[in-house]
Amino acid sequence: MNQIIECVPNFSEGRNQNVINEISNSISKIKGVYLLNVDPGNATNRTVMTFVGDPDSVIEAAYNAIKVASEKIDMIKHKGEHPRFGATDVCPLIPVSNITFDELIPYAEKLAKRVSDNLDIPVYLYEYAAKEEKRKNLANVRSGEYEGLEEKISKIDWKPDFGKNFNKKSGATAIGVRDFLIAYNINLNTKSTRLANAIAFDVREKGRIKRKGHPVIGEIVYDKNGNPENIKGSLKHVKAIGWYIDEFGIAQISMNLTNITKTPIHTVFDEVSKKAEKRGTRVTGSELVGLIPLKSILDAGKYFLKKQNRSLGIPESDIIKIAIESLGLNQVKDFDPEKNILEYYLDKISSKRKKLLDLSAKDFSDEVSRESPAPGGGSVSSYVGSLGASLSGMVANLSCNTRGWEDKVDVFSDLAKDLNKVREELLHLVDEDSNAFNAIMNAFKSPKNNEKEKQIRKEEINKATLYAAEVPLRVMRKAFQCYIYITKLSKEGNQNSLSDSGVACLCIYACIYGAYLNVRINLKGIENDNGIMKEAKEIIAKSEIEKEKILNFIQQKI
């Protein structure tokens, strides 16, 4: 699976459209990067840009943008309402898909070093990338702003993490790794801003000012330093305020969720629901402003499924539907997974051709039947295997819902989840097999005008051919995992579904044997196959044994 990260740099220019365009163009021209949003502010004299892509491409685009900003923005002349200390004031990197905070930190350091070395701009690392506790908070790092930067840099405890010289024109840049921020609004069955604010104060981390007697008009309580004391809210990493939305005719609690790993969206929804009920109102739904990572919406769907004591081993689209319905995300405006889920949106705008998996069952069958050599037996084998995994998952989910087996839901749900992972990987390999074949065809089209080109062409063909054999081997490995689940389900699952387990077994066997044939034909004429054929033969031999054991057991039971 591809790694995806987001970058949200803030530039100290919100009025000169030409400069804003030059910066945004420096981002969007990088292959593998998608510029999602450019949000300039006149009063703040600041522009926030949002782009996503693979880590290396995003780092390249971020560096380009910081470079252009250093050339076009003069901090000596800059004025604006928002705190700032540099032309590129802050540049956070955010993990979105298949990458952790720890894995992302070296990218932040790489970018920081490059900015410092090549552009002579001092860089502070913050949040997860910070080298010491006091630098985690961006407000601390940026304290004193541009006007106090020269003096701040000279202090031993505030030397930059990269670079040491004060850059009069560009100031400094804070580069960090932080969590994905979600703008999230929860709807109430009231028009009262006062009620919405009260609930917002109940839950937000900052809470409310402590008062004697009455919570609203009572005398403020101060600490020994003369600062107002606060009563903390119930949710960390949540900023919230209540307001009335004339467009919808309802009050909302408007929130920024600043750490969705520690305080996920479903936790926020449930907590606000509890606080609202205590104050005599109730939550009627919610809305997302912008995009949400796929993991967050899936985690929400799984959370509500678990509360209902239902299986988690269902298709991804079904889990998303549960999340949408449970959170009421369609109450005031439509929630479209392809537009509102970040990974789906990226896949939609970046796909150059329609995937086989996007076809209907009939269209897929039509596509296979055409005279083109791909998709062929490899893709069909993988697809048949996915159907075997699907059928096995169905048996597991039916077992979850068998009357009197309520205490076994977790066991069969875990089986269904594991089978669903196998199913998804086999579906992915349907397209991968077709791609591998196309890679061979492209290698044969390579130029061969001289000895050097002929040698390169030969190496490319050999490499592509080996990969075309590795893909069906992966299909064999993955499909073989299903036998252990089918065996368990045949013996312990819903016995009314024994025939389904048998069909699943035959699908898996056909998948493995079909993939084996593809391994053999792709390796024909290859001298060194890196052990691929040896492993394929071992799997096919074991597959024969497992298939016979399962079918014999089912035949006896039926």
Explain this structure.
The chain has 558 residues and is of the alpha+beta class. The protein has 3 domains: 174 residues, Formiminotransferase, N-terminal subdomain (Formiminotransferase-cyclodeaminase, Chain B, domain 1, 2-Layer Sandwich); 165 residues, Formiminotransferase, C-terminal subdomain (Alpha-Beta Plaits, 2-Layer Sandwich); 203 residues, Four Helix Bundle (Hemerythrin (Met), subunit A) (Up-down Bundle), CATH 1.20.120.680. The protein contains 18 helices and 15 strands. The strands form 4 sheets. Strands 1, 2, 3, 4, 5, 6 and 7 form a 7-stranded mixed sheet that branches. A 4-stranded antiparallel sheet has the order 13-14-8-15. Strands 9-12 form a two-stranded antiparallel sheet. Strand 10 and strand 11 form a beta hairpin. The mean pLDDT is 91.
Number of domains: 3
N- and C-termini, Cα separation: 41 Å
Number of strands: 15
Helicity level: 40-55%
CATH A-level architecture of the largest domain: Up-down Bundle
Biggest beta-sheet profile: 7 strands, mixed
Rounded mean pLDDT is: 91
- Helical region count? 18
CATH class term of the largest domain? Mainly Alpha
- The secondary structure category is alpha+beta
The low-confidence parts are: none
- Fraction in beta strands: 5-15%
Shape category: globular
Quaternary organisation: single chain
Radius of gyration: 29 Å
What is the fourth-level CATH superfamily of the largest domain? Formiminotetrahydrofolate cyclodeaminase monomer, up-and-down helical bundle
- What is the third-level CATH name, the topology of the largest domain? Four Helix Bundle (Hemerythrin (Met), subunit A)
